[in-house]
Specification:
single chain; about 325 residues; Rossmann fold
Length: about 325
Amino acid sequence: MRVLVTGGTGFVGSHIVERLLDNGASVIVAKRETSNLRWLPVERVELIDAPIDSPEPLRDVLPEIDAVVHAAAITKARRLEDFHKINAESTRRLLELCCEHCPEIKRFVFVSSQAASCPGCDEDGVCENTPEQPISAYGKSKLVAECIVKEYADKLPVTILRPPTVYGPRDTDLYIYFRLVNKGFLPFAGDPDRQFSAVYVKDVASLISRLIRNPHQSGRTFFITDGEVHTWRSFGETIAVALGKNPRKLRLPTWALWPTAAIAESLARVRGKPATLSFQKVREMVCNWVCDDSLVRKEIGYESEYGLERGIEETANWYREMGWL
């Protein structure tokens, strides 16, 4: 099987590429000229310069493609309209190219996010039938992209996957949490008992590899989790155990997140870069983010291989081996 992967140089995308290769697929990775290839086994993949916002070069390879995994997206942007341009409209153009040049592909998998749905807690974790109410520009752009994908469900066999918080080796977002715990501090932003779902990156990659081979109805949307409900307290304490630390717990009250975000956004504007902590990010941070993945377990036979303890330990070991901790 010959698979095209967008976003294959990133955290999640590089793990998808590895799993596809391990399962015997031939992989083409669409990239930018400036993409960092450090996580890719470049000797085992074919590379093509085709950034998601300029995918026209894909015309040359799409006729040979059996499946597409669209994992390219932006999670931060200087301008809100950039989310829509990159995450939604670029998805439409990729689907158009697939219809024109590889209408017989076996599967088009769109890697979305729980952010396209809405927050939820343990008692009412969101599922595929929950009405979508995204609360960030990123989430709204991913929902628009999902709607675009579904428009093509009668032309191509399409599937939408909504992971919640994804962690694992190569991640640089939650890595900050590991680094702080390693230094002896366990920070909590807001309520430490906020609930959320999570999934280890290798489980995401494994399911995607299965989705491109498993015949199922076009237009389906699936959540994926590790099958547990976590809190930021339990997540941090699990990291502490994996690192062999007894960190000092620090709590930043919810009200303090807003002025912190204001400062971060002001500095970002001066530097001409997206803010790491924005008002929209705070809006997401104060919510519970629990989702239910019963549907994908029932219809596709997905089973998570990594519980939190195993995933955190493997991630911590990788950070150590790389000299990040």
